[in-house]
Amino acid sequence: MPRIQLSALDAHWRAANYLAAGQIYLMDNPLLTEPLRPEHIKPRLLGHWGTSPGLNLVYTHLNRIIKERGQEALCVWGPGHGGPAVLAGSWLDGSYTQTYPDITRDAAGMGRLFQQFSFPGGVPSHVAPEVPGSIHEGGELGYSLAHAYGAAFDNPDLLVACVIGDGEAETGPLAGSWHSTKFLDPVHDGAVLPILHLNGYKIANPTVLSRIPEAELDALLKGYGHDPLYVTGSDPRRVHRDLAHALDQALDRIGRIKAEAPTAKGRPRWPVIVLRTPKGWTGPKTVDGDPVEDTWRSHQVPLAGVRDNPEHLRQLEDWLRSYRPQELFDAEGRPTGQVLAYTPEGPERLGATPHANGGLLTRSLPIRPLEDFAVPVEKPGTTLHEPTRVLGDLLAGVMADTAGRRDFRVVGPDETESNRLGALFAHTGKAWQARTLPTDQYLARDGRVMEILSEHLCQGWLEGYLLTGRHGLFSSYEAFVHIVDSMVNQHIKWLKTSRALPWRAPIPSLNYLLTSHVWRQDHNGFSHQDPGFVDHVLNKSPEVVRVYLPPDANTLLSVAEHALRSRDYVNVIVAGKQPCFDWLSLDEARLHCARGAGIWDWAGSDNGDRAPDVVLGCAGDVPTQEVLAATALLREHLPDLAVRVVNVVDIARLMPREEHPHGMPDHEYDALFTRDKPVIFAYHGYPWLIHRLAYRRAGHAHLHVRGYKESGTTTTPFDMVVRNDLDRYRLVMDVIDRVPGLAVRAAAVRQRMADARTRHHAWIREHGTDLPEVASWAWPH
Amino acid sequence: MPRIQLSALDAHWRAANYLAAGQIYLMDNPLLTEPLRPEHIKPRLLGHWGTSPGLNLVYTHLNRIIKERGQEALCVWGPGHGGPAVLAGSWLDGSYTQTYPDITRDAAGMGRLFQQFSFPGGVPSHVAPEVPGSIHEGGELGYSLAHAYGAAFDNPDLLVACVIGDGEAETGPLAGSWHSTKFLDPVHDGAVLPILHLNGYKIANPTVLSRIPEAELDALLKGYGHDPLYVTGSDPRRVHRDLAHALDQALDRIGRIKAEAPTAKGRPRWPVIVLRTPKGWTGPKTVDGDPVEDTWRSHQVPLAGVRDNPEHLRQLEDWLRSYRPQELFDAEGRPTGQVLAYTPEGPERLGATPHANGGLLTRSLPIRPLEDFAVPVEKPGTTLHEPTRVLGDLLAGVMADTAGRRDFRVVGPDETESNRLGALFAHTGKAWQARTLPTDQYLARDGRVMEILSEHLCQGWLEGYLLTGRHGLFSSYEAFVHIVDSMVNQHIKWLKTSRALPWRAPIPSLNYLLTSHVWRQDHNGFSHQDPGFVDHVLNKSPEVVRVYLPPDANTLLSVAEHALRSRDYVNVIVAGKQPCFDWLSLDEARLHCARGAGIWDWAGSDNGDRAPDVVLGCAGDVPTQEVLAATALLREHLPDLAVRVVNVVDIARLMPREEHPHGMPDHEYDALFTRDKPVIFAYHGYPWLIHRLAYRRAGHAHLHVRGYKESGTTTTPFDMVVRNDLDRYRLVMDVIDRVPGLAVRAAAVRQRMADARTRHHAWIREHGTDLPEVASWAWPH
């Protein structure tokens, strides 16, 4: 190893600190070529200084190891609210100017860099998608380490450094992420180097990990499976020396682990660096008599009154000049050679790595023809299949065909087999680096199915994997996917922002398969019943969000193929794992899914040649079955009634076109649902969602929706729909109640339906099973 | 200590195992008085056997220490999907029969206990609210330890045992909960005894913590601040002996910690028990040639074909008889004296502790007269206050007045001060048991403000505290409260179910203060902007959920008082922390909040004596300000227009009465909003929520809603409303566009508004601040 030039490291660090502080405060006089005056100061002082010097330090030192070792690297900045730091690093390594040519690497560009920060119309204060080299928004805390692991999977040559703030370390998701060490394969995956940055404080409090004895912290990190390296100090020169050595040690160790991995037994102990430096280091020591450096008071803007308070202005000028900017930038404002001594070139730069703009690396997924997997459907409703099992074969094909490329993973909280996706295990194992026993099944060090009982980790790993350009699917219990509500919020925001950045290449979509859904919780009950994730995501940016409710196996295949091929979306697919009637052949399924919603002529009795008396709408597998059963009852009991069945796969089609790109124009909606006939709509989830989507339609006044209304418990499948008034008998009663003139004419039929519900209640109390006529029901031909 | 009767422990455990298996399988012949026949078997076999023997073991052994030591105890059953176990324990200790007299502690009652389990109309398969002694639903995993700590806070004599499954231990929230050791005060709080149950498997996989070396696990637990005790084995007699000793050691240690606490320096190392026993222990060893005991295959129902497969039936009979039921129950099916040798009496029983029916212990909160805190309002809109700061004084009063009783806590992720609730620190500190430094502020071992950067822990602690009968408030960033979406789902389900159980006493409500809201994220931006938590909770049971959007300081006081006095609700209060105009005096605020929605006569120009031309609705502080500013513009520019202003505090008032108990009848809605006039509604959150709530109203066709539509970034407050078309100028344009006849007459006014928006864009680009006319705006008098 060449001798480390500590003064070059320090010059880069001082330059970055200068640029970070400058972004927070200055709108003019960027190089301090004249004395600082109030009019050089921004009118609104916004941003987070406290974490910035630490982030700058890491940027500085990562530059060195990248350059010296030719190491391919990516950094996930957990404390990404320290946007000024990462922006400074990117400006210094030239990647910022490469991405945004008007922010030149000179005095004029520096001025614009300062001005734009947290300025309306400028750049956000956090490490957002706008920041080159970033895959991780610095807003909500908790997911940095999971993202880092996701980025490292199947990138064997990549080093993913991950700065974890001691605030973030208190979150549950981060605390759980440490156990990712049991899932990282040293042969096929890259290395993750966590850098736990203990600057001691959050917004207004000390942090837990900074205030426990070092022996306890050491035990904790060893308990997570790591070998810790410590760097502690506030003397820059010593910290530079110690951090450089620690990084060299860590990289040497990683190198050894990787070299020994092909023949090694057991799980390696990966290094972790604990970096203890003061919060707001090198900033004002005290302000108005209160200590600021090394306290929580440095979290945001340490000097708040700079425009009005001459003492604050003086302190700011002293602070900025303490970095000796004249030594760091030449007269044109360009960083000096010493500052850039360790800056890598080209795509090796942290701000320019293609892994952080993953779409650049994305290859289309090999998906075999759906014909290989589709179930034959001669007549609708005569055969039964478990839709997710059929999908499992499709996914197994993708897994097989990516065996060499390794760019597809399936994640889930221990439910792959239970969700009928077990076919995957013919072609890959479950990732597992811990101890195994002879009774274990499918565990494999190089497995590409990831199972851990943590939705947060599943989501975080997959996000990291997708953001670096690879493909995947998350299969989850429908109810518990709410655990990641807030994570998917952030991912959708990331995608929305990224789509507007021409330099960001589209990345594979985040695909959810929500199964074990609300209507089939026989083993569990009320706690496992919640179909509200669809409502949650439909609040988000319509350009990103897609929701599909395929009613059978072939429609699930068609929807899944579309989702796996798509880019920059969040696709939510809700599909059951229990045996379900096959309604559509593959060709019919493809057409139906392409349309997203359509009339099922074969099911209705309006025969297309006259207007229907009533429209029965449905979305979701269980509601579709109940609607078809209701249609059969109507045919039998009210043969004159013209009934139209409309099935909706792509739920956003119900929205107005101005509100969602998939929204159908009014004339199409009217053609499907009519403008004036009663529509009884059986929906998989909360019924008011359908009203929310369709309230602008002409026929909305005639729309009556049935769905889940929190009437849940441990019971049979049919009892669940009865409890929620979504059953066939209730739907027939709804038709009779709403079609003008039927109330009297069909009073006897209505009574018969009510009687059937009564019979159900009596039967289930006695037998604990569903009525035989329901259990054995099939579509009549 | 008396000598431990291992045979009595074993008898109780065998009895509990017998009862657990019986619940899963039997609908008749409960005591096996005749050979087992298919018709004795339930038609649907549902439930979780795998975890049950371990839970039974813990129940058995906790009984002993409770009885021998007279120890007040509560147990949180993390693997609560093992409902059969906890039901068995409760039936054995008599608390089940006390709660449900028809389930007698004899053969007939045992038969009914078996029959009802997971049977439609019976009891759920999980440890749900129906289970005596429980405060923790066993559905979604991750929150047991946080609940246990919440129960222990301010219960100095209580032992809270907490069984943590090794599946649950993989979740992020559980992983983060271990650090609760830094927040438990040995003087004022009870003890938490975690029992980490490593049975090795989840649904279909081994667990992480069961497959790491014991030295690593030991380091991990020590790193969390614990002193571990290990019990490992599959020989019942040895495990009984070792677990009894471990529990005695743990209780002795806890006793010493408590005794030394008043004078001790530093943080104690609390015991934790690691219990390694086989999954599905004592169940079938193999089924159809596959190993079952001690593998994941025992997770649910180990023998699935009992009704049809004679070999399975024989195996089941052997299994059940292996517990030797004739030794455990007398001829009438009553547990023998040996089985009950260690069973405690009365409220000491785990199934009968009042702490698990916390409402029994609840005392009304002392709340000082609001007059002590209200801001004087001579005229609306002349003074400014930070509403949450005013609320802070009220909360500080509650904190002061509960200093002796210690039954009120405020939790939040490091934002109490930032949310302007700092007045609390005059009367209590921030709970903190770790190291302190001279620069720290407000940290105190006995503090009742709880701050940790984990929404999961805040929520879990508070839930545990409320479920055991105490009071509290959770203040959170509005956007990040989505982190606990899934937790609040479960709590709402718990409350809904509990309300229907006459024996469960109402508990204090879960109160959220959502501040740092979407419209004021100056320091942060898009990642911090999400008002969707209201949408989320409004999907849930209307009998539980209440949502309030007080528009100013006095209305916030009134709403908060109501929430703090209420029971069995989840109250969501959305209120800003930034200076906000005072609109209503305290008396007016009380009246307005009691009504939940009302006409602000002083703001409108219809003067009550004629029908309005337009209604301007508003809900939320920022929308209210924009609506009032729009009203002022309309007065100035269109003085003839009759404008009515309706402010909504209680958002559920917009719903039909049949859908929410607060829903207003149609005639009242029509009286406020008219049936036929245009209504422009400015809402705090996603606009379609208002449509969802109001779609059944006669006037819905005329309702036009403005709100947040994901157009967020780091910018000024006024630019945020402009970007989302919620600003005063846009609202005036909306009025002109929608009131018949105005389009032409008011074209010049409309242009002036459009010009103002253009002026805004230009100004902010140049100055980075809001237009002076906006920044200095006040309500005209």
Largest sheet of chain A: 6 strands, parallel
Q: Largest protein interface? A: A-B, 126 and 127 residues
Low-confidence stretches of chain A: none
* Radius of gyration of chain A, whole Å: 30 Å
The H-level CATH homologous superfamily of the largest domain in chain A, spelled out, is: Thiamin diphosphate (ThDP)-binding fold, Pyr/PP domains
- CATH fold-level topology of the largest domain in chain A: Rossmann fold
For the record, the CATH class of the largest domain in chain A is Alpha Beta
Count of individual domains of chain A:
3
Hey, roughly how much beta strand do the residues of chain A contain? 5-15%
Helical residue percent band of chain A: 25-40%
Structural class of chain A: alpha/beta
Oligomer kind: homodimer
What integer is the average pLDDT of chain A? 96
Placed side by side, the strands forming the largest sheet of chain A appear as: 12-9-13-14-16-15
Query: Based on the structure given, which CATH architecture of the largest domain in chain A is correct?
Result: 3-Layer(aba) Sandwich
Shape of chain A: elongated
User: What gap, in angstroms, lies between the N and C termini of chain A?
Assistant: 80 Å
